Amino acid sequence: MNPTAGAIRAGWTRGLIELRQSFTNGGDLFSHLLWPALMLTVMFFMRDTAFGSSGLLLGTLALPSILGANVAMGMVSMSQQLTAEREDGTLLRAKATPNGMQGYLVGKVVTVSGMLLADLAIFLIPGLFIIDGLAVGSLGSWLTLAWVLVLGMVAALPIGAILGSVFTTTRSQGLLQLPILGMVAISGIFYPIASIPEWLQWIAQIFPFYWLGLGMRSALLPDGAAGIEIGESWRHLETIGVLGAWAVLGLVLAPIVLRRMARRESGSSVAERRETALQRVG
């Protein structure tokens, strides 16, 4: 068998095993259910709140936006897993195996993508019954949701791999949460972006969060809802352009950064990080 094909096959199998374990382990299963449950609770209380004189409800606007934000949060999940497994030596063991890094990365993509899709389904399916006014009756809506989802994952996961290579410990990786939450706050996820200052709108449009939210809104909201967006348009071409640019950036840089990170990994560096972690606990 071709070594690369063997590594991909091994990674696929590993990813599916890890994905299954995440739904059979009590702690991981709780994590899968917690975030969707919190967001559905927020949706429930927003479902009857109108946005100005637009005739639209905040709950209706927020549901697809949260879907988009969850896709973008895949970069955080990817970085968390890479950082944790770099710290505990899993990455070093993969490096020591022929074509192990290729298989490892394929496995991480399978695991994180599967977890992400499952979490989206856990949130979306009950949300369709809680929230009124969604335009989900046509095939076009679901096709738009599909291409935004796929392009969003291709944009987010390689960036997550890069971020996971930058941080050496899970404690330092936790600092990533603060700027991520800041981007969510200004990206029109819980409230239309047109309501925030224009200079913040420009900043939000640099990052994937806004465009994933916009893409999901274009898939699940009626056409008239575009009137409250920037330019009163769903801007599909711009969405493809920005998310595509992030995807290309991640796919080009991720292999380079990961190779450099793997070369620096050694038994002594893993042991040093473990000792530091034990000292903090002590």
Commentary on this structure:
With 282 residues, the protein is mainly α. It has one domain (11-267). The protein contains 13 helices and no strands. The chain has helices at residues 3-24, 26-46, 58-72, 74-87, 90-95, 100-130, 139-166, 170-173, 177-186, 198-204, 208-220, 236-264, 267-281. It is elongated and about 65 Å long. The chain starts with a helix and ends with a helix. The mean pLDDT is 86.
Helix content: over 70%
Mean pLDDT: 86
Which H/E pattern describes the elements? HHHHHHHHHHHHH
Radius of gyration: 20 Å
Give the DSSP E fraction (strand runs of 2 or more residues). Answer: under 5%
Q: Name the shape in a single word.
A: elongated
First-residue to last-residue Cα separation: 48 Å
- How many domains in all? 1
Instruction: Give me the count of strands.
Output: 0
- Which structural class should the secondary elements be placed in? mainly alpha
Poorly predicted parts? none
The biggest beta sheet is recorded as: none
> How many H/I helices?
13
A few lines on this structure:
This protein has helices at 3-24, 26-46, 58-72, 74-87, 90-95, 100-130, 139-166, 170-173, 177-186, 198-204, 208-220, 236-264, 267-281. By secondary structure, the chain is mainly α.
